[in-house]
Specification:
Blueprint: E1 2-4, H1 10-23, E2 27-32, H2 44-54, E3 60-65, H3 73-83, E4 86-90, H4 99-105, E5 113-115, H5 120-124
Parallel strand pairs: 1-5, 2-3, 3-4
Helix pairs in contact: 2-3
């Protein structure tokens, strides 16, 4: 679970992890619920059916960005954990779902990555990747 204030880079971190998985030839499913492509997955049962249809065999990484738009999303996450060999990574907007509420839904079954925005000094450091 990646948590942090609005616009601190949660989605960007998830995207970087997706690129890493591609380089490792790992099997993954990435869904950004901000995209209209996934608008039909607004209910946990629809999300579960969609993911089940995509998973074949072996380990998968499930990446969900802005999961809070799915009604009762925690039910789907729990089912994925039980039914498939998978690692699950989720982000959610603090303006819709406070990070403390995430822990209520997933008690004892998650690791939280607290993301902070760059300080001004960090922002000014030259980037080797540019």
């Amino acid at each position: 679970m990646i948590t942090g204030i609005r616009r601190c880079g949660k989605s960007s971190l998830l995207e970087l992890f997706k690129e890493y998985l591609k380089k490792q030839n790992a099997k993954f499913i990435h869904i950004s619920f901000e995209s209209l492509e996934f608008e039909h997955l607004s209910d946990y049962k629809e999300l579960y059916k969609h993911i089940k249809s995509k998973i074949k065999s072996g380990k998968y990484y499930l990446l969900f960005d802005e999961i809070q738009v799915v009604k009762d999303w925690q039910k789907a996450i729990e089912s994925f954990r039980l039914d498939f060999e998978c690692d699950i990574y989720i982000t959610g907007s603090n303006s819709h779902l406070l990070s403390g509420e995430f822990s209520t839904y997933l008690t004892g079954r998650f690791v939280e990555i607290k993301l902070l925005p760059l300080s001004f000094a960090e922002f000014l450091i030259p980037r080797a990747w540019q």
